[in-house]
Amino acid sequence: MHLPALSNSAAYQALQDHTIEAEHWQMRELFAKNPDRFSRFSLTAAGLFLDYSKNRVDQNTMQLLCELARERDVEQAREALFTGEKINTTEHRAALHTALRMPRSQALMVDGDDVGADVHHVLDRIKQFTDRVRSGEWLGYSGKPITDIVNIGIGGSDLGPKMVTLALRAYRHPRLRMHFVSNVDGHDLDAVLTSVNAETTLFIVASKTFTTMETMLNAQSARAWFLNTAAVDALARHFVAVSTNLEAIQSFGIDPDNMFPFWDWVGGRYSVWSAIGLSVTLAVGFEHFSAFLAGAHAMDLHFRSAPLERNMPVLFALIGFWNRNFLGCNSLSIAPYHQDLSCFPAYLRQLEMESNGKRVTLDGSPVGVATCPIVWGDCGTNGQHAYFQLLHQGTDVTPIDFIGCLQPSHKLPQHHAALLANCFAQSEAFMRGKTGAEVRAELQGQGLPDSDIEALVPHKVFPGNRPSNTILMDALTPAALGALIALYEHKTFVQGVLWGINSFDQWGVELGKALARTIQGELAGQSRPDDHDSSTNGLIAIAKAKATL
Ligand code: F6P
């Protein structure tokens, strides 16, 4: 069905009219007026609790946003996602990451294939292999069990496994040390190779395409280092691959028995649930990896069946859309209050920005409104002592997602109460702010002279009224983490549907890749290239004259 341009749609225009009123709201007053605000604007799903009450919304806003979601066919798009329609239209592919976490009993036929059966066949192989490595049955060339796993991959083939492996630190195998190499900068691989022993190291080359330049160069260098250090041809015991490209793996020299496949309907940034999660499974074991998948599946079930008004990913997406498109917020900060989620902001950066950093709709016409905000962040409380100053008193309003866990996985006294207190205090501070009258009263209480007080007041005022969400889980378990990632995946999907864009391609990464290939050739060649602009020509000339290439 052909939809009108987003900004011309009736629901979008109704929201624009509504914004004229909403822009003047103060959240303090919204809370004072409605004692039920917390329970009205919060919900639980798949073991996660979402509080979105500290946003500049009321019942009417949420209703208008849900009308927009209906008008933009979110429900139909959601069904197309789950049933394997080729919604990635520029690559003619389905986006079936949800099939990777379906239980064994569930079949899903796509193009005549039962993808559920294919997924579980690979999962069985992953179980067998990871059990052998973890138990010490799989031996390196000199007969010793594996102690170090090196995952070589980039983008989705790195960020997902790295983030999840760190997040599930409490579940890790005590013998296995995990390393992740992604950067083509040799310092990345060098740092790992100087810390491991070839006899007991297992390399996983993780690449959907098996053509990505950074991964291929790192894999070749790791193989050369291994063959040189081991001085025996024992690649089959030390190199495995995860990819959709069997041919390329064989020509690299990896035994096809050591290949764990996945499929073109798994996008890179949605691939941690596939064999790309091999390093995660090695670290935490198959049982915990299965619980991780089950947690995501629970969120899938909720997303697919709950009405829009009580649907966590839909509401989460609508809040983000409201902040971006009607309140003009151009960035989103992620603040996990759990050190083991320190890589989560970087993971979401790819998930949201590579998915929705687009400017044309599915039919190629300009979107006409702002799309994905800049996503960034760091762990609380570290961020508080670094950049929260700008979030509290800077000129831009940046919404924040606070993520907290009720139970820690450590036993250190006092830390957890201090952590949660900071998490809740920050969201309160962003909402409440501090008025001039409050600052004045406080300074008067300290006995400061009036002239000093008046000079200080503007500096100590917090405008407040700054939006945030808080997501809570009982503990950072594999299931809760699975649900959390699936929540953000579906949020990203819903926002992509609202904007009318393809959330599953990433053509924007191609131009730089092509130019890098040309410049790499020029750096290696004899001639002075002059086909670029004067800046690029000049930089290449300096490198050719002075750099070690
Ligand atoms: O260049 C971007 C990208 O294609 C990402 O989407 C992807 O996650 C990453 O590169 C790695 O790709 P591959 O797994 O094919 O090596």
How would you sum up this structure, described in words?
Among the domains are: 97-284, 3-Layer(aba) Sandwich (Rossmann fold), CATH 3.40.50; 508-546, Phosphoglucose isomerase, C-terminal domain (Orthogonal Bundle), CATH 1.10.1390. The chain is globular, with a radius of gyration of 26 Å. The strands form three sheets. The protein has a six-stranded mixed β-sheet with strand order 1-2-13-12-10-11, with helices on both faces. Strands 6-5-7-8-9 form a five-stranded parallel β-sheet, with helices on both faces. Strand 1 (42-45) and strand 2 form a beta hairpin. With 549 residues, the chain is an alpha/beta fold. It has 22 helices and 13 strands. 6-O-phosphono-beta-D-fructofuranose binds at residues 154-157, 207-209, 212, 215, 268-269, 354, 506, 509.
Bound molecules: 6-O-phosphono-beta-D-fructofuranose
CATH uppermost class of one domain: Alpha Beta
CATH T-level fold name of one domain: Rossmann fold
Strand-residue proportion: 5-15%
What is the level-2 CATH architecture name of one domain?
3-Layer(aba) Sandwich
Largest sheet: spatial strand order: 1-2-13-12-10-11
Radius of gyration: 26 Å
Measured as a percent range, the helix fraction is 40-55%
Tally of strands: 13
Catalytic activity: alpha-D-glucose 6-phosphate = beta-D-fructose 6-phosphate
Pfam family, one: PGI
EC number: 5.3.1.9
InterPro entries: G6P_Isomerase, G6P_Isomerase_C, Phosphoglucose_isomerase_CS, SIS_dom_sf, SIS_PGI_1, SIS_PGI_2
